[in-house]
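Before the break, one more example. Copy the sequence into your notebook; we will annotate it together after we see the structure.
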Amino acid sequence: MATGTAKGIAVFAGVSPEIIRASAREAEALGYRSFWVNHPGPVDGLGSLGHAAAETRRIDLGVGVIPLHTRGPEAIAEGVRAHGLPPERLLLGVGSPNPEALKRVRDGVAALRAALSTRIIVAALGPKMCHLAGEVAERIRALLRYVAPDKLWLNPDCGFWETPRWATRLKMAALVEGARLVRRELEG
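Here is what the structure looks like once it is written out:
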């Protein structure tokens, strides 16, 4: 996991590989904690992130959100391996729209956890999906056996600008309450 500031930077996955590589190198040199690309339609975000991985050694590498209804967990795991993405630095964002979103994400996250040893971030907008994100967050406790609490961070997704206020409030309330519960456990 990268050290440095808690700031991250995002680049459109469809820009040229030269821009991806140069941006990732510069972000790492400036002490950014994470470098992100999106996964828009015909552009393979994992492939774009592979260019950043080849140019960096410390910065966390994030992709989000890969829709599980168009790219299944097996194809995602294969893409991670094919592009040489380091699991210890990868932040793998996944999600899925309705219908069957909860089942698809739950099953997809389970399959990805079995296939990859990387951090998985679930994109959640609605109340039921937020609850699922809370279930996935339960695994934080397992991580705390290996990672110091001050090295873990929670981050809401970037979709708040297009999320209805009621869903944003529910999502933030779940995030805050989950962090509060873990903090209480840590403090004894």
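The radius of gyration is 16 Å. The CA atoms of residues 13 and 136 lie 27 Å apart. Try to locate both features in your own notes.
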